[in-house]
Amino acid sequence: MIEAYIFDAVRTPRGKGKKDGSLHQATPVWLLRTLLQGLQQRHNLDTSLVDDVILGCVTPVGEQGADIARTAVLDAGWAESVAGVTLSRFCASGLEAINMAAAKIRAGLGDMVVAGGVESMSRWPMGSDGGAWVMDPRINSGTAVPPWRSRKAASTRRSSLSRTSTACCCSPRTRPSTLALRSSRCPS
After folding, report:
1. Mean pLDDT per 10-residue section of the chain, whose length is 188 residues
2. Per-domain residue ranges of the chain
3. CA triple 39-44-46, angle to 5 deg
4. DSSP of 40-74, one letter per residue?
5. CATH class (in words) of the domain with range 5-125+159-184
């Protein structure tokens, strides 16, 4: 079986998840564009070699809705051939995106995948997308109480939640080794 390797990890700044937080003005797609462009520059990456961008997003609504992964790829000026998909698995969305990227590579369905997560809870509080767990009392009273059950609770219980992170996975082993060698020669 083909092995998958994480050859780099990039993180944007974090801030308080509130309306006057330090990152409130930074839209989720702006955070991603900055991150993707940084990843490209850091490795002198030919983005046409990237097969897919997989991003997790807990609350894919508003400006972080639709397919923010594909939107960010286009906004960052990456090759039009790069696909993008967004998934939601609540708090494990970014981790699941990385797991899916590794599985895709190990199955031979891609050679290079960028994966991670994005969320701007200062702009879109958890539960903004609705759904039965948030909206239906029969469901949310019978399960663990969602912390966003009231808007006041959502705004007071969230901290350090404007964030995004990405890891780039590659195979076969020679490609990450070549990129790692090249990146070690880049000025910091």
Report:
1. 88 78 87 94 95 94 94 98 95 93 94 93 79 78 57 39 48 54 50
2. 5-125+159-184
3. 90
4. HHHHT--GGG--EEEEE-SS--GGG-S-HHHHHHH
5. alpha beta
